[in-house]
Amino acid sequence: LSDIVIRQQNDPRYLELVSQGGSKSNFNLTGGLGLFHARFYLGYTFGQYLGKSLLSDPMDVLVAYKGSNISIGYKFGLNENWKIFSSAHYKLLFSHKDSFLATIRAKYKGFLEFGSTYKNEESAGFFAGFQVKKLVELTYSYELPVSDNSSVGKGTHEVVLGFRITQVQRRSYFW
Question: I need a surface site. Which of 38, 91, 94, 122 has the fewest CB within 10 A?
Answer without folding.
Answer: 38
